[in-house]
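[Meeting: bench + compute handoff]

Bench side (C.D.) handed over the final construct sequence. Compute side (W.E.) agreed to return the predicted structure before the next meeting so the bench team could plan truncations. Sequence as handed over:
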Amino acid sequence: MEALVIHAPGDLRVEDVPTPELGPMQLQVRVRCGGICGSDLHYYQHGGFGTVRIQQPMVLGHEVAGVVEAVGRDVLGCSVGERIAISPSRPCGACRYCQMGLQNHCLDMRYFGSAMRMPHVQGAFRQQIVVEAHQAHRLDDDVSDAEGAMAEPLAVALHAVNRAGPMLGKAVLVTGCGPIGAMAVIAARRAGAALIVATDLTAHPLRKAAQVGADETINVAEDPAALAKYAGEKGRFDVLLEASGNERALKGALDVLRPRGIIVQLGLAGSEMSLPVNTIVAKELELRGTFRFHEEFATAVQLINKGLVDLKPLVSATLPYRDAARAFALAADRTQAMKVLLDFE
């Protein structure tokens, strides 16, 4: 079968790779659709992110949906022909963090398309993939493959909102409106946020954030002082979901966050940030990280199946996997693209 294999920055090739043998508790899946994630872009553009670098050829991709082609002999509750979204996360289940219910911090995690360990964990941008049965989550007939492929970034946003705590009736600021930021808007609204304001530096992501539920959008490149109206009485927002990874966005939001407000940091910075610790202390702010997800993947698929979230406005284009270079270039263009998908049919 064919797969998209990254060798070095800008060197993404369509290559033949073998399909692994099917184990007793595994499924062989025909991949139909895959979403290009920010980490895929970092591998393609820079060869990695932070200290993580490609050291050997690696199949990219971890946001995929497909159809079951074969079922291992011991698998129950899944049949050939079933359409599924695939969780890219394979925690070991045995380490101390898995036993604590913190599977996203597994000490032996295997996450599709990741160069964080050697040998690298091969990804899911391929025509066929063999997965553990527990990674498969059934899609309803009226759900598109594209929506199924977006269960993974939605799960990231759901985990971030869970990290923020109760959201009912809260005022929420989302900084950075790429796909994860836009899905954070969706997740916050689903969790009961009463007011959601979204900021970005570019018009197109802000339009999409408004489409998926933001009450107000602010282009801080055009109007840097626009958030100031929320700074009175020590701040208006209860929760900040910081999805840009930009130090200026984080610092600028602290003035409009109320005392004892919650900061959830989703965005990863290119380098370490410096924080205004005096402000954090004086306002008794809480800074919380958020990393991947676990049980939220099943929740994401459930919300999609029930039509309780609408991800379709975030789909910018679907291109054939053989046209990956054009797809990755489009995905990197924030002036016209949000989520770009690859068609593996």
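W.E. noted at the follow-up: DSSP finds ten helices and 20 strands in the chain. C.D. will use this when planning the next construct.
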